[in-house]
Every structure is written in structure tokens, then in C-alpha cells.
Amino acid sequence: MLAQISTTNDKSIHLPLKKKILLVEDEVLFAKAVVKRLQKAGFECEHAETLHDARLLIKQFEPDMALLDMRLPDGNGLDLLSDFVAKNVNTIVMTAFGDVTDAVNAIKMGAIDYLKKPIDLEELLLIIQKNEKTTDLQTSLDYSRQRDTVVNESVQLIGESAAMQSVRQQIARIAQLSALSDAVQPTVLIAGETGTGKDVVARYLHAHCENRDKPFVHVDCASLPSELIESELFGHEKGAFTNAVATRPGLIESAEDGTLFLDEIGELPLGLQAKLLNVLERRMVRRLGSTKERPVQARIIAATNRDLYEMSNEGRFRSDLYYRLNVITMQMPPLRDRGQDILLLAYYFKQLTEKRYALPHHEFSSNAMMAIQSYDWPGNVREMRHQISRAVLMCTQPQITDIDLGLPQSLTMSTTQALAAELPLTLEDAEKVMLLNALEQARNNVSKAARILGITRMTMRYRMDKHGIAL
């Protein structure tokens, strides 16, 4: 949550709001001590001595959390607990009587914890802070779940190289299989270095199959909090564990009959790999704390930048899960091996940034194109997107130069770089630059230069003759 305050120059500054805690307690001295300690820790607190006063404060104060005594002058705290649960207020119950029955009933009704009096204030503070952290994580995961449930943006695969043509052909075949049969679709594993666009291919595959109008759920196995990953994937029943105040379907169920994309599958803990394997084999999922199994209808796509075969040999990834995932494997090529796609992507990201920020049209100088082609792009397409976007945003001239790109220069001054004097560069000149650059990298080996550019040797010879390039 954010609060907005005004400054003298009429600009707004956003500050985090203090979490609100309502204390319902009839022992005044104890209540004052609790309020004072929580305020010192940065919380906003209100105190009610009766159920009646507490119900008024629930509406007026709108607390994020409640500390609820079980024995109050006008009734039992359990009578108020349902009000807190209905408003999603995390509640810790307190009792001086050690009444196990009340405590058990409170947990069943939705309380997150209970404490026996006398209560240590530091222990109470630790419990509150732990709950606050868990709530923040859950809010973040809820937002991610809602955001990624469907694919809202059109997805494009940019590139005409042989490697990308192969990827398109595989996608077309998978989409064809999807259209031919209602049977459970085979698992797809997308492998490749970080930043090669594995998530883009997963979304593109979803968008071109029969279930394109169904949910697309993206699960980043590397970023899910370790303490929540099992319940997030498989779901849980109310009361299955501390803080499980309501029944919740997991991300696997949330995909319904759409697509479940398990990104960075190699980061999934070994303990959960067996459970995931069971889901893939039997196409059934069971929530934590439940005895009921639910069918899994979603297409499963997994992605990894790790060598799962090697990991399985080393005991760091289950071999049976690897073989179950490795039904259809798509290998994403690194950007450095995509030849002519490098400049195509650079122009695409340039135009995308110009359109997004309503910027004027820019051109790449010949030096910039040389830098783009000669750079190894260790971060692949993701790195290129950020570098090109930054250059476009910061460039105030009609041309983007190699200085604007800020890339390390991997080649010295050469014949192709000498064309920098011919500005602005035409399309014909740009093609000649690409041919000469590829020949230089290949040391005048025509076949190797053709492979660098992702074209055939015959096409390479034709274009060399077209531009009068003789060896």
C-alpha cells in the first residue's frame, strides 16, 4: 500500500502505509503495553475493550491484523472472529485460560495463530512480523497469478535464420497435433541459454494452438519462495498449515484447460520433482491437506537454461522427470548464431521503443551496425532489447552510433568499418556491410560466411556477385 503526500512544489511523494493492528483486550494495563510496543515497531494501533467497540472499529479503522482476547466483558472472542475472517483480517487469538478447545476452534474458524497469557511482547512482535512478511509474499504471488493468467499481448517471433525457421516448423507441427486430437497433448521442453526467448516461444506456441483462448499460467520455478512453492503449485485446503485461512487452488489447477508454463524447471527442488512427475504421469493433482484428486487438463510446457541430462546424471535432477519432460524438445539458438536475425531484431526493438515512447525515427550508423553484428551478445535477445531501447531513449540525434550503443568492440578497424564514411547507409550498403563482415569473420571461407548469415552458399555467391565482391 502507498500513501501520497503533497510537497511545496506540488509534486507527490509515495510512502509506505503503516500496517494497522486492532487489539481487542479488556485488561487495560496489558493493552497499553502492547500498543506502545507495536507503535514503536512502526505499526498503527487501535484498542477496543469490548466486542461492541471492536465491531465499530472494524468499520472505521479497517485493520490489516487483529489481536483478539477470548474472554471479553460482553462475550467470547470467537463471536467476533468470524467478522475478522470475513474481511480477510489476519487474527491472532489470546487467552489467559489455556483453553485448548477455544484455541482449536479459533484455528478452524480461520485464526492464523494463538498465544497463551502471559504473553512476551517480543515474541508477539516476531509472530506479527513473520505474518506480515508471508502476507506480502502472498500478495505478490496473487498479483503475478492474476497478471499471467492470460496472454494479453500479441507475441511475435522475429527472425528468418535457419534456426528460427526450424523453431517455427516445430511449433506448426505441435499446433497441428493439437488440432487433430482431443487427447492430452505431449509435454514440450524448451532449452536454451538465458535470454534466448524461451518464454516468448512458449507464449507463441500457446497463441497458435487450439487452447489459445484459455488461460496461460507462467510459473517461474526460480523465483517462487521456498516456503510457499508447494502450496502455490499444488494448492491447499483451509487449515492445511499455519496461515492457510482459506482453500486455494494451485497454479497447476489455475491453468485449467489452457497452458501451464514451468519456467526454469531445473530450479525446482528435488523434493517436489517426484510430486510433479506424478502429476505429469497421472494428470491428477491433490491439494495440500486434501484427500481428493482433481484432473489436470492443461498443456505442460517447461523451459530451462540448464543441461537437465547432465544434472540427472549428477543426481541434481530426477532422471525419470527429465525423460518425462523430454517428449518434444525445442532448442533455442543463442543470438550470436542467428546470423541475419541480429540486425532484424535490432531494427525491431528500435521501432518498438520509438512507437512505445512516441519518439522520432532513428537510423543506425554503419559503425553501430558493425558493433551490433560483431558483439557476442552473451545475454542474447534480452540483452539486445535493453541495449537498443536504452540507446534509442538516450539518443538525441537522428542517427544511433556505436557510442550510443555502448557495446564492447570485438573487432578492430577493418574494410567493412571503412564504409562508415558513407552516411547515411542505404539498404544496399547495409547488405554489403553484412556480407563483407561475414567474410572477414570466416576468413574468406564462403560456406562458413553463409552459415554465419544463416543463408545458403548459393545465395551467398549470388549476393557477392550482386555487390561486386570478389575474393
List its salient traits.
16% strand, alpha/beta, Helicase, Ruva Protein, domain 3, 19 helices, 45% helix, 5-stranded parallel beta sheet
Describe this structure in words.
This protein has 471 residues and is α/β, with parallel strands linked by helices. It folds into 3 domains: 2-143, Rossmann fold; 151-333, P-loop containing nucleotide triphosphate hydrolases (Rossmann fold, 3-Layer(aba) Sandwich), CATH 3.40.50.300; 337-466, Orthogonal Bundle (Helicase, Ruva Protein, domain 3). Helix content is 45%, strand content 16%. The chain contains 19 helices and 20 strands. The protein has helices at 28-40, 51-61, 78-86, 100-109, 121-148, 162-180, 198-207, 229-234, 251-254, 270-282, 308-313, 319-325, 341-356, 366-374, 380-394, 402-405, 427-441, 446-453, 457-466, and strands at 2-6, 12-16, 20-24, 44-48, 65-69, 71-72, 75-76, 90-95, 113-116, 188-191, 216-220, 235-236, 248-249, 259-263, 284-286, 293-295, 299-304, 328-331, 363-364, 399-400. The chain has a 5-stranded parallel sheet, with helices on both faces. Strands 11-14-17-10-18 form a 5-stranded parallel sheet. Strand 3 (20-24), helix 1 (28-40) and strand 4 (44-48) form a beta-alpha-beta unit. Helix 3 (78-86) runs parallel beside helix 4, helix 13 crosses helix 15 and helix 18 packs across helix 19 (457-466). The longest helix is centred in the first third of the chain and has 28 residues, at 121-148. Residues 1-16, 143-153 and 410-423 have low confidence and may be disordered.
